[in-house]
Amino acid sequence: EEWKQLGPGKKNLTIALDWMHDTFKDAPVLGSLLNPAKTDAAKIVQWDELSSALEQALNQEKQQEQSEEQQEVAVVAQGLAKAATLLAGRYQWVITNVPYLARGKQNERLRDFCEKHYSAAKNDLATVFLDRCLELCVEGGTSSIVLPQNWLFLTSYKKFREKLLKNDTWHLIARLGPQAFQTPMWDFNVQLISLSRGNSTKESGGLFGDVNDGNLIRGVDVSEPRTAAEKAAQLLTEEVKSVEQAKQLVNPDARITLEKEISGSLLSEYAESLVGIQTGDYPQFAAKFWEIDEISSGWEYYERPGDETIDRTEAIFWENESGRLFELVKAKLGENGIGAWIRGREAWGKHGISVQLMRNLNASVYEGAKYDQTLAVVLPKNNDYLLPIWAFCSSTEYNEAVRRIDQKLNVTNATLVKVPFDLNRWIKIAEEKYPNGLPKPYTDDPTQWIFHGHPCGSVVWDDEKKWTAHGPLRTDDSVLHVAVARLLGYRWPAELDTSMELADEQREWVKRCAALASYADDDGIVCIPPVRGEASASDRLLNLLAAAYGDAWSNDTLATLLKSADHAGKTLETWLREKFFTQHCKLFQHRPFIWHIWDGLRDGFAALVNYHKLDAKLLETLIYTYLGDWISRQKQDIASGVDGAQERLAAAEALKKKLELILEGEAPYDIFVRWKPLEKQPIGWDPDLNDGVRLNIRPFLTVPDVGKKGAGVLRDKPNINWNKDRGKDVESAPWYHKFNGDRINDHHLTLAEKRAAREAAE
To answer: 342 lies in which domain range?
Structure first.
């Protein structure tokens, strides 16, 4: 009512005041996006008239008696009218660093406003502001803006690019790249861009008016330097490129590139690009393949990006598309939304090229496994195209071609096939490089599921023959670890899956592993000292290594292996006691499957245990048979006066009590699995291998330490935590209401709680 009293008798002014009051209440959210000139109020009153009328009204109010509240309203109204006049104005040059905020992070009011007034630019607040800054310009006026550069090439901005290319005049694009600001801020990939409003710069006399008939976009790229100072210096010396504005419209998706126009056939004529699976809860549905006993019982191979090539370390809990993963996707997206997360079906079981969507776009040959959303498969439309497309995608030319049209850190899968591809040229290159065709999978890396499993076997690429071949026997730092795993009875997936596609030499090494089977321990417990009539771990390991190397085995070979394992000049036994478990954790990415359990003494009880076999029965065997035998021997040694026996006995008995705590499983030495309801939580030591090492190892790390802090009864502490996982649970998740949807892992349950819940469920 106070606002209306400022415009008595002037209907248009009263309407405008009402609009101004309603609009500027959103100013904290919309800021300078507000444009009075585009409103209904602008049709009935000029903003100059509004400001003048308000000033007159305020002066009249000053001459009359008025309340303090009335005067305050008048002052605010006049200030807002001045702001409205500025926002409705037109300028020759607008220069700014606009705010950045993706559409998904905007609040509802801002999102709706951008949708209504800037629909083509709506995907990010930065592009909305670019549109708004051009709106603030007179015809021919220029906007020079710093903003992210991903809109120059992402498919979702296609209409916005087309609009600006058709309606406005582009002058300069300076690609600044990441770390372009002197002040600390997020590592945005930014650019400085200058455009003029309207597409007739010669007539309007824009600041960057071009004398040519066809407008040229000038461009400079200083993305590579890593500091703002280096970028500033390079801007003065870097080559300035020129491309025709109109020809950007014929690029795929009207992407903006500083290179000459794209010509010839695109890769999309010969292949399609398919992005992979989004699980929605990675810790629940993915695991390293060595965490589970065998790729079966619902698990399938799952590919993710590696450092240079595809990473074959993981498996996904698939359950024939009828288990927890699909229930989660349905709960999140609905029955009809499954395809939004479960993607790549067209590629499964086929051959193609797997491309990492980050950084250097590393490519690998794809053999048909399920794969993650951080990968895309370039799937040839004809199998005859596979070899030339592989030759192209694995070359540096491919990365350069993609990066010319998409500089985003993680490119979209659609971009991967929107690059020029000369089929005949790449056929010739492929024939020279792979005259015998594509090699089948091979590796000597034990963290890959295609690994042959042999401690010292080797398969290499013979560049002369252009095919795979047997390499020299290995003596690298993985040999001892593979041998220990075999000693404990572990076998690699390639040994268990006869249908796995492997190079012939790789398959030969798989077959040779059969000769080492007799050296594997029966129950999965190998004590480092001799216990219960069994030889020491080092003696048993030496026998296995000698069998693996055959005639090539010698003391020199052992010395080389110990040197490779950072234990030069020392013994195999001390390596097992002091170095093995730490190195094992590192090699197998802190998801160890051979556990080193000890009592804290360098000459005390220590056992290597195969986690896959460590159920309640085997833990009892470890406690009461192996450790029990050791305890009996220490008592005998005490009676015989053997030095150190008393200390070893005390340490062993203390270890026994800690292991019994784990066996019993009372909180806080219990296993908690956040995706299982209370009645299905394990009672006592009853691990489900499907839940992964991270959760199942916890009791062994949380009992009182015998050595390293936080390692419990293990020789070292793997880099494992039980922090809250990313994302929110669906309402049907068993602990949703307890944790308000958070994915909490750090929780304990008493045996009484679990038993009561299980009885109630029966």
So the answer is: 267-433
